[in-house]
Automatic annotation (TrEMBL):
Descriptive protein name: DUF1059 domain-containing protein
Domain of life: Bacteria
Record organism: Candidatus Giovannonibacteria bacterium RIFCSPLOWO2_12_FULL_43_26
Stored Pfam families: DUF1059
């Protein structure tokens, strides 16, 4: 069952990208963060590093 926490959104348009990606992921932070990380790594070639995790988390509103 999904968490009933605060609804957040990860929007690729808020993060610089050569692909001009428009993907938006919404849900609880526990749902959105891992999906956004997987997307960033697979689709955009980012590395899962502490610095990138911090940057990604700051774009989730």
């Amino acid at each position: 069952m999904a968490s009933k926490g605060k609804r957040v959104t990860a929007d690729c348009r808020k993060f610089p990208s050569k692909k001009k990606c428009t993907l938006t992921i919404s849900g609880s932070m526990t749902e959105v963060y891992p999906m956004a990380m997987a997307h960033a790594v697979k689709s955009h070639g980012h590395k899962n590093t502490p610095l990138f995790r911090k940057q990604l988390r700051s774009t989730i509103k």
